[in-house]
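Input sequence (260 aa), recorded before submission:
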Amino acid sequence: FRVYIQETGMRRLAFIFAILALPCAVGFSEVGQAAPPSDAKKYIENIDPIVNLTDEEKTVITGIINEQTKALDDYKTKNASSLQAVGDEMTKAYQSQDPQAIAHAQEDHRAAYAPIFDLEKKYADRLDKALTPEQQAKLKDTRLTGLIKSFATPNQLTDQQMAAVKAAANHDPSFQNLQAIRDAINNILTPQQKAAGVKLYAMHLTRNRYLKAKITEDQQTQIESACDQLVKDPTLTYQEVAAKLSEKVDAMLTPDQKRH
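Predicted structure, token format:
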């Protein structure tokens, strides 16, 4: 495949897939995003331009993050094999494009990572409380903006759409509010924007499935054209589009490509 998803889009797409798989979200990559940071210095550097930290606040934050890192590392070390197993299951499920397998993998992932989420929530709350109410509000809005932009990929929302999503989500970027944020975005996207999102994710899944097939330029053009037709049906999810697209790709592969 020709590079279909630009570097920024890939980072956001990976973030979205993680969000879809988990009951809560932590460790966002954008500036000003939430814990759990593994490096106190980097975390402080990220949020300082937004909230203008005092020296005392930096000291408190450093202590919290160091304590958090040890707690998380201890848990992950003790449970390394089970965490690796659910991670492998998740990868295979998405590669298979089987909705039931994906749902089962997500459930196993949630169960295995529940203690980690509890720890992360505990320390995220402590980090928030280390800030003043004004600082918390600024950071909260930055986090929410980052979430919305990530969920809306590949679409760039208008200022009016962004404001509408924030209002519908009650200006709440908390872990428990992720579904409300997704719903709010879905409700304000135009049909064209929704189709663009479905195409991005469907093409990503299809691209991963046929990485070793050495798809030709002509075949890729046919694949993208087929995807454009499929996403015109607003009732299809990106998984369903990817499944139908895979049928079309299988039909156009040469015997040599199929062996790979």
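Checked by second reader. Residues 195 and 234 are 7 Å apart (CA to CA).
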